[in-house]
Specification:
The chain is an alpha+beta fold. The chain folds into three domains: 60 residues; 138 residues, GAF domain (Beta-Lactamase), CATH 3.30.450.40; 231 residues, Phosphatase 2c, domain 1 (4-Layer Sandwich). The chain is built from twelve helices and 15 strands. The chain has a five-stranded antiparallel β-sheet, sandwiched between helices. Strands 6-15-14-11-12 form a five-stranded antiparallel β-sheet. It has a five-stranded antiparallel β-sheet with strand order 7-8-9-10-13. A hairpin with a 2-residue loop joins strand 11 and strand 12. The chain is globular. It starts with a helix and ends with a strand.
Length: 499
């Protein structure tokens, strides 16, 4: 018989009834009491076993759902890349913008499975605006939407528009939920791209991230078209004029390269100044941290914050972009984190407040993925919240596994409350945790093959057994894999072992 809560309850009633019948049949009270005590002990053990089994089943179900969501995400990302690749090939043969923007609008409609998709491009000087709508005859976003997306350059993710008075116009047009992102060229919004649903189905930060993939490609096509027009104008000039223009262009490119080199040096100095000079002694853990910058300095950042009472804040983050802009956002992120970390004992609340500040103060194309947690050496607990960052790797008894992902990158949406959650991890002595940035898994060898999450887990499972030098060991494995291939992104690690 399959043991369930119902069958266990029926078994308990039957067994108690049998003991009481024995009492009625003349058995001694002591014997019946002993029978009942044994029965209670057996049923308690059975109940514990049933509860443990149900807990394991729930864990398996959560893991299955997590893997299913990851697989679905990867499938959608693959479809997006395939469509964008086809559109790029078509662009090379046609060199016409509007038909390809129509293809992007169609792809948004089909891949994201929405009711309406829209692309709007502001006119150039003396030109006409471009508006492409699929799935609807007309759609008026209203002043508030344009103000947020086009003029402020912010993205919008709104579910159940009836709860938002600002967007009541859209609600009256049978639109229930929407995501909008700016089309950006050189830090200036030139239009918007969006998707809407008329059903109960809402959007998540995952859909917004996928929409940005289309937005970035559309902006690239628009910029390429404008550059081609400039080249065509240049080609109709007299030969002497063309040669002089080419000389000026070469000189301009050399000057720009020198500026870029100086900016990279400034960014490298900023990053070096922000990262910890030494790793602190943290109670209850053996901690290591290191960052290996790429030539084009990215926005990797890690930090340790003494919160008092044996509690330490541990943060690792990756700012989108490279160079001085990413370094400046890193400075802002570090400053805000230090100001907010002592205001709450819950990492999700800290990140929610940090998200609100970054959303207001940064460019809409800037995102910060961050994992922030609080380590309590007295209880060996690590309470953390993940804002769109790489999932940590946990090693227990020699076996490595990735912890669940979660949350949305900071600065991507205005309100992150309810999206960011707290996770509590209790470590036994010897258990080890690795926090890292995506430069580790995305490091490539000469064949363009990525190091990947599986290799990183294997490398850290072996390194975790070392008394020291765990981070150095993992970095060595990555460099052995990449060989002479250049490093294109920063690689940052924090490793700590419960002692």
């Amino acid at each position: 018989m399959k043991l369930t809560s119902r069958s266990l309850a029926l078994l308990s009633v039957a067994a108690l009834a049998a003991c009481n019948l024995s009492l009625a049949a003349g058995a001694s009270a002591a014997a019946v009491i002993a029978c009942n005590l044994v029965l209670v002990a057996v049923l308690a053990a059975a109940w514990r076993a049933l509860t443990a089994r149900e807990h394991r089943l729930q864990q398996i179900e959560r893991r299955y759902q997590s893997l299913r969501m990851v697989a679905e995400d990867q499938e959608v990302e693959a479809r997006i890349l395939e469509v964008l690749s086809q559109i790029s090939v078509e662009f090379l043969s046609k060199m016409q913008l509007r038909p390809l923007l129509e293809r992007i609008s169609e792809a948004i409609h089909d891949v994201l499975e929405v009711d309406v998709s829209v692309i709007e491009v502001l006119p150039e000087a003396g030109g006409q605006p471009v508006r492409l709508l699929r799935g609807g005859t007309d759609l008026a976003f209203g002043r508030d939407c344009y103000n947020e997306v086009v003029f402020k350059g912010k993205s919008l993710l709104v579910n159940n528009l009836a709860n938002y008075p600002h967007y009541v116009t859209l609600g009256s047009q049978s639109v229930r939920s929407m995501i909008l992102a700016p089309l950006t060229l050189h830090n200036r919004a030139i239009g918007l791209i969006g998707a809407c649903t008329a059903t109960q189905r809402g959007f998540t930060s995952r859909h917004l991230r996928q929409l940005y993939s289309f937005a970035n490609h559309a902006a690239l096509l628009i910029e390429t078209t404008r550059l081609l027009r400039s080249v065509q104008k240049l080609s109709v000039k007299q030969p002497a004029d063309g040669i002089e223009d080419l000389k000026d262009l070469a000189e301009h490119l050399r000057a720009e390269r020198q500026v870029e080199d100086r900016e990279m040096e400034v960014a490298r100095r900023i990053q070096t100044a922000l990262l910890p000079r030494t790793v602190p002694m943290i109670p209850g853990a053996a901690v290591e941290g290191a960052s290996s910058p790429a030539r084009e300095v990215g926005g990797d950042y890690y930090d340790f914050l003494d919160l008092g009472g044996g509690r330490w804040g541990i943060a690792i983050a990756d700012v989108s972009g490279k160079g001085v802009p990413a370094a400046l956002v890193m400075v802002m992120t570090r400053t805000l984190l230090h100001a907010l970390a002592r205001a709450s004992e819950l990492p999700a609340e800290v990140l929610t407040a940090l998200n609100a500040d970054l959303y207001k103060e940064t460019d809409p194309s800037v995102f910060v993925s961050m994992l922030y947690g609080i380590w309590d050496g007295r209880t060996r607990t690590f309470t953390y919240s993940n804002a769109g960052h790489e999932p940590p790797i946990l090693v227990q008894k020699g076996a490595a596994r990735a912890l669940p992902t979660g949350g949305v990158a900071l600065g991507a949406i205005e309100h992150a409350g309810g999206v960011l959650e707290n996770q509590i991890l209790t470590l036994d002595a010897g258990d080890s945790l690795l926090l890292f940035t995506d430069g580790a898994t995305e490091a490539r060898n000469a064949s363009r093959e990525m190091f990947g999450a599986e290799r990183l887990q294997q490398a850290y499972a072996e390194a975790a057994a070392r008394p020291a030098g765990r981070v150095v060991s993992v970095l060595a494995r990555i460099r052995e894999f990449t060989g002479t291939s250049p490093q294109h992104d920063d690689i940052t690690f924090i490793s700590f072992v419960a002692v």
